[in-house]
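Morning!

This is the sequence you dropped in the shared folder:
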Amino acid sequence: MARRGSYAKGVAKREEILERALDVIAREGFRRTSVKDLAEAVGLSQAGLLHYFGTKERLFTEILRKRDELDNAAIVPTPDAGMDADDLRERWVGVIRHNQQVPGLVHLFAAMSVDAADAEHPAHEYFTERNARLREALTDVMRDRLDPRIDPETASRLLQAVSDGLQLQWMLEPDLDMAATTTALLDLIVPPTEEPT
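The structure's back. Tokens below.
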């Protein structure tokens, strides 16, 4: 029984670390947040913090996984909730608006995605799996509403590429309205349902 209890405590502490790390990085920024800062935020030493993740890179990868978990819950509130293209538009743009409120997490995502291009990087698998899952989900939702000249997977890649690329532009140009730009693309590839007159 003690083993099961200590496992549950370890899982709970790991979740606490990830939730606090999301807050700290969102507020302080990725480059200004050290492992020491994250450890202090949850009352651990650096070694104690890394005990739960192994390395700094794995810690940051798990922070991104936690961010995805929360973003996915905002896009698809429950696994069995049906979603159509109009729902996708609203929720996708909502997540983009949220991202503009957490620049530190956007910077973490961008920096890690570049580093993860190296197949040896600890986040490589996370990014390749994430991208594939995201494209599959987008393709499923958009398939029936796309202009027949656009392949659904291509449309999904475009939406993903624009969203990720806009984050880089926004970090350089903070006045950029990522949500409006993404909405413009969605208007082209998945036009909104016309309201009956």
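Headline: Residues 56-189 form a domain with the Tetracycline Repressor; domain 2 fold (CATH 1.10.357).

More detail when I'm at my desk.
O.
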